[in-house]
Specification:
This protein is an alpha+beta fold and about 425 residues long. It contains 10 helices and 12 strands. Helix 2 packs across helix 5. This is Sucrase.
Length: about 425
């Protein structure tokens, strides 16, 4: 690890994130996701092969795949994002194999017995499970931090090791129905941040093309900023909303130690630094990419965003419908979550830095060490300002800094008048005192 990375505040108090009694973030994982509604199981729009993993493809094939299914595809950023997450209260991730071998519907695959049995058991006990539960399959590699059969549960932030198909019914009964503990297992507390990216290329080519590129960029940023062991990235299978690829979910604790899961759509590799700096480090929701969150209905997600925009000066900022060519051309009055005008548009080349929101759903790596160093912030901002897609270069709006009289407010006038009045009163009192002598 470089000296620069080791001096970052995010590296401070490493024991707060990794210690013998807790489980550090997973390195990678893969997930196939569905709610406990049988109508949503196997609801893929199509079946594709994992041709999105283009590591072995030549430049022409990669460019063609990007044009048709990637960040340059015709439907990219053409649909509203907010309010597109189905209501759920708990997310269960089963670590199992990897995206390259997942069939389109892994929860129903004949030869993938563990995910098939777990999905069937959850569906059979749906009426007995008190919390609306979503199941997702995440990548597992035996002999690593995330072995096949490991189960991660959010917002509980716990991990169970080595679930087998023999244990499925007991596990569902004890943990998901009774909200207790699975006695054969020893639940480990999870710490840090968990980022899941849909890479299920056999389910939908768009996820197969976009997801791996985002995972690669996340891993690069995590390494270059010394965040190993604090922020994990995990490829995952279908989570709903193929057309919003790249799809990203971020789980972590806020300053009140509460866990929530925020969903982002239409994410590109160039958006990764912004997500890490604003969401993970500063606790600011990146509204122009925000789909919704765990625990809120679709209408509540829309109301939540509108509430934030009304508080922090946003007006009609419908980021889900912006073309990659259009990002950065909104007015300076549209400020999201304490971001400057250009930050709200995914561009940080020219804006005044503002304070983080007071009452946002705040995710901090560590409350005392939540902000990056000035050097790291500058690095992130340079990276965020790059183009976010192949459809065109992201335009930059140069926002002029307000002069003193433009930013003068009524409260400032009152303060000046109070000071002047106090000075006059002191002078008058002193004059009276001299006359009495």
């Amino acid at each position: 690890m470089s000296q620069k990375a080791s001096n970052s505040p995010l590296m401070a108090n490493r024991d707060d994130f990794i210690n013998p009694n807790t489980s550090s973030p997973v390195t990678v994982s893969d997930a196939d996701s569905f709610l406990l509604d049988s109508s949503q199981i196997g609801s893929a729009s199509g079946s594709f092969q994992n041709e999105g993993f283009l590591s072995g493809a030549d430049g022409g094939a990669a460019a063609a795949a990007d044009a048709e299914f990637g960040f340059s595809r015709p439907d990219f950023r053409q649909t509203q994002l907010v309010g597109t997450v189905d209501f759920y209260e708990r997310h269960v991730f089963l670590c199992y194999k990897n995206p390259q071998v997942w069939p389109p519907r892994i929860e129903a695959a004949e030869f993938d017995r563990l995910p098939r049995l777990l999905a069937a058991a959850l569906t059979a006990r749906k009426n007995d499970v008190k919390k609306q539960t979503r199941l997702t399959i995440c990548e597992g590699h035996d002999g690593t931090e995330t072995s096949n059969g490991d189960v991660l549960i959010f917002p509980d932030m716990i991990r169970y090791r080595r679930l087998t198909h023999f244990d499925v019914d007991t596990f569902v009964e004890e943990v998901l129905v009774k909200d207790g503990e699975w006695l054969p297992g020893n639940p480990e507390a999870l710490t840090g941040w968990y980022i899941f990216v849909c890479c299920h290329g056999s389910r939908d080519r768009r996820c197969g093309v976009c997801g791996p590129a985002i995972v690669s960029r996340l891993l690069e940023e995590i390494e270059s900023n010394g965040l190993q062991g604090k922020v994990s990235v995990s490829p995952c299978s279908h989570i709903g909303g193929h057309k919003f690829a790249g799809n990203v979910i971020i789980y972590g604790r806020n300053t009140h130690k509460e866990v929530s899961g925020h969903w982002y759509g239409y994410v590109t590799p160039d958006d990764v630094p912004q997500l890490l700096e604003q969401h993970v480090a500063k606790g600011e929701i990146v509204d122009w990419l925000w789909r919704g969150q765990m625990g809120l209905s679709e209408d509540e997600q829309k109301a939540s965003q509108q509430h934030r925009l009304s508080i922090y000066g946003g007006t009609d900022v419908d980021r889900g419908t912006i073309n990659s060519n259009d990002v950065g051309i909104r007015t300076c009055g549209s400020q999201l979550e304490g971001m400057g005008c250009c930050q709200a548009n995914g561009n940080v080349s020219c804006c005044q830095t503002t304070q983080p929101p007071v009452d946002a759903d705040n995710f901090n790596l560590n409350q005392e060490n939540a902000e990056f160093t000035t050097e790291k912030k500058s690095s992130f901002k340079r990276q965020v300002s790059r183009s976010s897609s192949g459809k065109g270069t992201r335009s930059r709006k140069v926002c002029s800094m307000p002069t003193w009289y433009e930013s003068w407010e009524r409260e400032d006038t009152y303060a000046v008048l109070a000071v002047v009045g106090a000075a006059i009163s002191v002078a008058y009192a002193f004059n009276c005192y001299r006359q009495l002598k």
